[in-house]
Amino acid sequence: MSWKETLGDRIPAELGREIDTYENQIALKRQGKIDDKVFAETRLRRGAYGQRYDNGQRNDGNGVKLLPFPSDGQTKGPDTVWDAPGMMRIKIPFGGLTADQMDTLADLSEEYSDGVCHITTRQDIQLHFVHIDDTPALMRRLAAVGITTREACGNTVRNVTACPLSGVCRDETFDVTPYAEASMRFLLGHPDTQDFGRKFKVAFSGCREHACGLVNMHDFGGIAVTREVDGVTERGFEAYVGGGLGAVPHEAKIFDPFLKEEDVLPTLQAMSRVFARLGEKRNRARARIKFLVQQLGIDEFRRLVREEREALEHDDRWSAFIERVNTPTDAPLLEGAGSDEAAGSDAFQAWRRTNVYPQRQPGYAVATITLPLGDLSGWQLRRLATLARRFVGDAVRATVEQNIVFRWVREADLPELHQGLEALGLAQPGAGTIADITACPGTDTCKLGIASSRGLAAELERRLADQLSSLDESVRNLRIKVSGCFNSCGQHHISDLGFYGVSRHVGGNVVPHFQVLLGGKWVENAGSYGLAIGAIPAKSIPEVVRRITDRFVEERNGDESFYDFTSRIGKRALRDMLQDLTAVPDKLVNADFYRDWGDPREFGIGDMGVGECAGEVVSLTEFDLAGAESQVFEAQLALEENDPARADKLAYGAMLQAAKGLIKTEFIDISDDPSQIVTEFRTRFYDTEVFFDKYAGGKFANYLFRRHEQAGPTAERDVARQLIEEAQLFLEATHACQARLAAIPPPPTAAAGPSLGGVQ
Amino acid sequence: MTDQAAGVDALQRIALKIFLDDEAVLDPRDVIPIFHRWIQTSAVDGLLIDLADYTHMTSGPSVLLAAHEGHYAIEQSGGRLGIQYARRADQKGALAERLHAAARTLVKAGRLLEADTSLGGQVRFRGDQLECLANDRLSAPNRRETLEAFRPAVESLLATLGPDDDWSLTQEADERERFGVLATSGSGAGLDLLEARLG
Ligand code: SF4
Prior knowledge:
The complex is a heterodimer of chains A (760) and B (199).
Chain A: H1 3-7, H2 13-30, H3 36-45, E1 48-49, E2 57-59, E3 64-66, E4 75-77, E5 80-81, E6 86-90, E7 96-97, H4 99-112, E8 116-119, E9 125-130, H5 135-143, E10 157-162, H6 177-187, E11 200-205, E12 220-229, E13 232-241, E14 253-260, H7 264-278, H8 289-296, H9 298-311, H10 317-320, H11 346-355, E15 356-358, E16 364-369, E17 375-377, H12 378-391, E18 396-398, E19 404-410, H13 414-424, E20 438-439, H14 453-467, H15 473-476, E21 480-483, E22 497-506, E23 509-518, H16 523-526, E24 531-537, H17 541-555, H18 562-569, H19 571-578, H20 612-640, H21 644-663, H22 674-686, H23 699-709, H24 717-742
Parallel strand pairs in A: 10-11, 11-12, 20-21, 21-22
Antiparallel strand pairs in A: 1-6, 2-3, 4-5, 6-9, 7-18, 8-9, 8-17, 12-13, 13-14, 15-16, 16-19, 18-19, 22-23, 23-24
Helix pairs in contact in A: 2-3, 2-5, 4-5, 4-12, 6-7, 7-9, 8-9, 12-13, 20-21, 20-24, 21-22, 21-24, 22-23, 23-24
Chain B: H1 3-9, E1 14-19, H2 31-41, E2 48-53, E3 61-67, E4 70-75, E5 82-87, H3 95-115, E6 129-134, H4 144-161, E7 168-171, E8 180-184, H5 191-198
Antiparallel strand pairs in B: 1-5, 1-6, 2-3, 3-4, 4-5, 6-8, 7-8
The complex binds iron/sulfur cluster.
């Protein structure tokens, strides 16, 4: 028997057909009848992702070793070995889970993965260490409980997210869940969403003030609003477009201050068509819709979408769902009943203070189940499903903070629910506090991870959880978010304290560091993005957190927010107070700095047998890199002082100085002339691909080339801000390139005059 | 052969776990460098891929050593800490042979941990209990009939591990859980003896 036969017609016919097709494609790929790239996109569109080391290589701490999978040369994508474990991303629209779905996810995690379910920052669930051959059965079992993994990855409309409190929130304008659900159903597999250059993310939020929907960082986001027309209340959305974090974050632009509810789906369709038609396809780095909006300008983009909208053939689905928007998404299982707020153990009270949110419906509350690093075991998830059946039925959602919430808990049942969670080891208090840290997978499983985001987050959680009850209230409610690289899957830009992994070349070794970001706002739907103030060794980050939070407690003015505090103190002062932490002790004094959190392996590859000549040149390079870092920082300050032109000039100057530093490894007499720097850099490092990132190719170099071609400094704040981000990334790429160069013998032409040759 | 027996006979994804004698002596975090070392030196069976640190969790794997053929884990499901070997890739031979092979792999890993000097020689695994899980609900749903189909193979393994012992089998009661039995005997040999008996 197979799962296909066993589940029979419990698998919806259409999903069943799609999975059959996918299984056939697997068979064809095994027979060598499908191209690697095509198959990779095929599996990605079904949620089957790659995972670290799937190229069949791993640095075990003593050097890079081959992982001899028995795949016999079979691949499942370019440079991706068939038998190497992969990650399965499971789309959970608006995070909504039923108890049966939880049971199935628990089973799948045990049978096909490593027994662990991971909640992502976009309300998805991920399973790791999954073999590609198991994915069709896994998908069929999900389909039987109403879940599709279709378009969970790839250049598609990704999971549609929404506030986990929608429908029960005390502050929302109205419940956005039906709109999120309708958008998901409408866009899934829609012919107009199949030809994007990159992914497209949609989110809905019930109000402006809170963070839950994170509208500002999405490709399309809608905030619920109403208006009175002739005495009738109309529903609509303040619609945003072109937001996004990633390497170069963009704050979304307002597309329509009042997009009527019946216009949401056709507008999304029209936008998809414009994006598919005009969006960048070849250069992935500039293919998100934010770049199209920037290139066209929001007014032209809006005009094109509206024009497209007018030309669309009517589709009944655009408004069919509206008759159901007043039907509650989930209903209470039990009749509401209040409780004695002072009753219960100390542990219960501590949990209640941080993990319970009284709903607007009297007698009911939302209980947050705090999941450390978003993880829970299959065993826990199954028992959580049992608790759900007992207390709330199917009113369960995953959150963007990597937790799970039970909605519609009777307040009178909270102590019993807490007891039930304690028995599962899931009664940890601290939801939504500084100890509830968000982290992307980072170096644990992500192919692009530079430093261990989860290792750092686990360490910070351990330390902060112990101190939670004694922390000052102002600190307790801060947010920390960590990413393993600049791509920002951990959403480091929108937290009070954000960190992303980078590396630094120190005395012949590569040392894990994190860039520290301040000035981000979680509230107001990700109302502001933080900027990097400097890279600090990974092992000193706990001290960074301690110093900054202590200073906040000591110098806070009244009930000043952390955002206002950091703006008032200024980034320069904050950076100064961390200056001593940038030091890396000699390896003989403290080798721990040369290892990442939770990983005893030496970080990176360590043969630094650099010749004397190269050593001297490297130090000059480092000098330039340090200067470039200062310039980027100065650029941020200029932006804060509302001087975009100066910020632009400084950011550009930083890229030039970094490029110049790199050129000095080959040509020590390089001048300060921007044109010569760019020409030499292009010839020596870009055309030769020496500067190329393994995954991003020449994208970072293009930041410099583009700015160099620009006539003069910009007066636009947004553009200057983007250039600062780009300069930061250019710097990181320069550090990485320098580290790579230091790891190989110096070229015979080192320190010679201008030449056409590259390093090798 | 009944359908059930045929399903169980085809079972490949077997997970075996032995438990720590004294849980207080092992902080799972101390196993992280050991597993890394195992990868470097290919100390245990299989193509060792990577390590996953789940020490922040209170259930399931705490530290996982992922391998192509099967994962090793310091495992804490059911609130009991032990070492588990969860077979993933297919093996040849009858079910009883496959169980023996998995047990050999597990006991070898357990012995290495016991002998690891970085743990101070404190770690001991109990030889009087063995948990066998069928990590495949299709071949081996958690039903009474599955136990009957599974019994000959597991009893064959137990006869090897403790030929003179009186083993009892307790089946996992929750039908939604994977089929599993906890085998218990009154006495228990050390892992060195178990390794010798498994050959
Ligand atoms: S931020 Fe970087 S390391 Fe983290 S998941 Fe995204 S790409 Fe991977």
